[in-house]
Amino acid sequence: SATAAEELITPAVQISYTQHLINGQFVDAASGKSFPTYDPRTGEVIAHIAEGDAEDINRAVSAARKAFDEGPWPKMTAYERSRILLRFADLVEKHNDELAALETWNNGKPYLQAAQSEVPMFVRLFHYYAGWADKIHGLTVPADGNYHVQTLHEPIGVAGQIIPWNFPLLMFAWKVGPALACGNTIVLKTAEQTPLTALYVAKLFHEAGLPPGVLNIVSGYGPTAGAALASHMDVDKIAFTGSTETGKVVLELAAKSNLKPVTLELGGKSPFIICEDAEIDHAVELAHFALFFNQGQCCCAGSRTFVHERVYDEFLEKAKARALRRVVGDPFKNGVEQGPQIDSEQFEKVLRYIRSGIESKATLECGGERIGSKGYFIQPTVFSNVQDDMLIAKDEIFGPVQSILKFKDIDEVIKRANATRYGLAAGVFTRSLETANTLTRGLRAGTVWVNCFDVFDAAIPFGGYKMSGIGREKGIYSLHNYLQVKAVVSPLKNP
Ligand code: ADP
């Protein structure tokens, strides 16, 4: 699409850590194996990473088990734990630019997005959960009879966490922040596409005083390392973010092993609804952002753009013009809005969906092709005349493909927006308070953004209705995922 910007803006970055981090030590895989990790700008290998399997997961889980059962972690005062989280966040802040560069190198997202938004949000999230560590407490319960009853809120134990590749640092923060604030210990498996930044920050965590064994990082693939973690008998809780398909597998593995509780943050097909009273230029920009942000690789992407028939033509013309103006190119260059997709598999998948859109007779307004001959760049693509039963309106594409649908009235659009197995998020664009209220009450989704989109404060809960997931992350709600409630009951008087 548009011309790429000039200057390379990043500091050079080195890859220092490629091994697992278990019990405070960097160690090779038990098997001695490694796997390549790539630069999505070129498809070239940038490092070889220790490849985890069941044996590495076993070692990591026993380190986490020991750190939980024998201390020091849950035995420290909450204030001491809070101080370590704060020191860690401050250290990350000092390494902002290297971390952002590493994230961009491995993931392909625009460097400025990583440097100005994602690393700062990571830091903010750890500050937020550090604040919770010493404010977690139970209740005194007025039960019938002469009993003194209290509830203790205790950590669950060893938490297994499996994260995806689209926001490697933020997904680490959403999982690790609340788990550690509550006093749990962790084995985290990164996505095979993006192992680098988690190892880097985990090293900083130990510099900040985190005791060995509290946070263990294993790199590797899903069906091997991931499945071993989900089915481990000594893991007390599992948290997963990824596709709905894999979420089902994780839930099943947890059920078949030790019935560990599971939280899932899965796929979506989120509606973005533009009402007839909308201010069009603003709506165009927000709908564009809602879909194209992060190369379209967001679980909550506004991937069904519903536009009221009275403003449809104007919206469409402007949405197309905006997509044509989107700057795609090297994510390290200043001014670039869109980098490459993460890998060849995702790249091919997105191109298949584009072909399916064309075959199903949606109108291809712009884009539709790859850019260049190396790396995984795709033109910003807009389809109009999209019908509800087309594959591009039903499946999660996870790429820079905007589908525009027409609607007539609010009741109709609520029904159509809800006619999906997903329920992660929704966007609503209107100047009418009444319309906004009707839509926010009617939409079955875990987040409804009104006249905004992708607002991700540390305090705002995030998660899905229906097949978009189980449970909420961030905010006070995430603490519940990592706490057990113990009722303690005793007679008021000795018998
Ligand atoms: P995507 O299709 O976007 O790569 P996945 O849901 O497959 O998303 O991956 C998200 C995370 O789940 C990654 O860390 C991946 O390695 C892991 N994973 C994939 N398959 C399994 C599995 N069978 N068991 C446990 N984890 C898995």
Automatic annotation (TrEMBL):
Keywords: NAD, Oxidoreductase. InterPro entries: Ald_DH/histidinol_DH, Ald_DH_C, Ald_DH_CS_CYS, Ald_DH_CS_GLU, Ald_DH_N, Aldehyde_DH_dom. It is found in: Mitochondrion matrix. GO terms for molecular function: aldehyde dehydrogenase (NAD+) activity. It comes from the Eukaryota. Residues 26-488 form the Aldehyde dehydrogenase domain. It catalyses: an aldehyde + NAD(+) + H2O = a carboxylate + NADH + 2 H(+). This is aldehyde dehydrogenase (NAD(+)). It comes from Quillaja saponaria. The lineage of its organism: Eukaryota, Viridiplantae, Streptophyta, Embryophyta, Tracheophyta.
